[in-house]
Design a protein that fits this description.
The complex is a heterodimer of chains A (52) and B (222). Chain A has 52 residues and is mainly α. Chain A contains two helices and no strands. Classes of the chains: A mainly alpha (52), B alpha/beta (222).
Chain lengths: 52, 222
């Protein structure tokens, strides 16, 4: 994960587009929070510059 | 094995700038085993370069191939048909592979994608350590099988020096003192008495000091 995040940073796409979290299936509330945080982060970063 | 590391992506982008079509060429031997320039690394690097150059507004095309051993002509014949299609080869072999491709296919510019670092061994997952400097006059027979040329910062023939503290080298506290290792090994072998003999001057002529080295085996020549 750290390797790929670093690689995305070097490429210029931004390593912050990628994240991995560990959750159990019983942590629905936490899953929703993380999904929201990630969605907000990606919205802020904007679309993948390679697809524009 | 020969151990190498991939150059930073920014440096590689600079190296391939100005070329329209580049072959990223891996090697299936040493650099595959040290995860620097095998088929997998070729795929990752070619994809990274495609994305990075496109973000810079450059339309460079990157082809991918891997041969079994770039340091021998016969293995490179497998990519001979690809060469006329490209402007440059970005070789992910060691420096020997880069120069072999350069000599074998002089019509194409061959560029190094790796920094060839040392002759060594993997000591644990993800860690490689130098073990040999190819000095041409091996002393392992008198040092308990531990090389003071590559593993002692001073390449001492009679050690340890005063910088050896608690078994580690003063140059780097993470590096064991080679002469402490030699002492411990000779002690385990019951041959400490051999360390009382002074190693005289080593013959450095077979090492780098005599310039480029060459071996000719008349019994093997055609």
């Amino acid at each position: 994960m750290n390797y790929v995040k670093g690689l995305l940073g070097q490429i210029g796409l931004g390593g912050e587009r990628l994240e991995m979290v560990f959750l159990s299936s019983a942590e629905g509330k936490r899953w929703a929070e993380i999904a929201t945080e990630m969605t907000d982060r990606i919205r802020e970063l904007g679309p993948n510059p390679l697809r524009i | 094995m020969i151990v190498a590391e991939q150059k930073p992506l920014d440096e590689l982008k600079q190296l391939v700038s100005g070329y329209d079509k580049v072959l990223v060429l891996g090697c299936g031997t040493c650099v595959t085993v040290c995860f620097a320039g095998g088929e997998k690394e070729v795929g990752i690097l070619a994809s990274s370069l495609r994305m990075a150059t496109r973000l810079d507004g450059i339309q460079t095309e990157f082809l991918e191939a891997t041969v079994q051993r770039q340091c021998e002509y016969e293995y490179n014949e497998a990519i001979a048909e690809l060469l006329p299609q490209v402007d440059a080869v970005l070789s992910l072999a060691c420096g020997i592979g880069v120069q072999t491709i350069n000599e074998q296919f002089p019509e194409v510019q061959t560029l190094p994608g790796l920094n060839t670092t040392f002759l060594g061994q993997p000591t644990e997952q993800g860690v490689w350590e130098e073990r040999c400097q190819a000095c041409g006059d091996c002393v392992l027979g008198t040092t308990g099988g531990i090389c003071p040329i590559s593993r002692c910062a001073k390449s001492l023939l009679n050690g340890p020096c005063g910088g050896s503290q608690n078994g580690v080298c003063e140059v780097d506290r993470e590096t064991p003192c080679a002469w402490q290792l030699i002492y411990d090994r000779m002690s385990a072998l019951g041959k400490l008495d051999l360390l009382l003999e002074l190693n005289t001057m080593k013959n450095w002529r077979p090492s780098r000091d005599g310039g480029q080295r060459k071996i000719v085996r008349e019994d093997l020549r055609l």
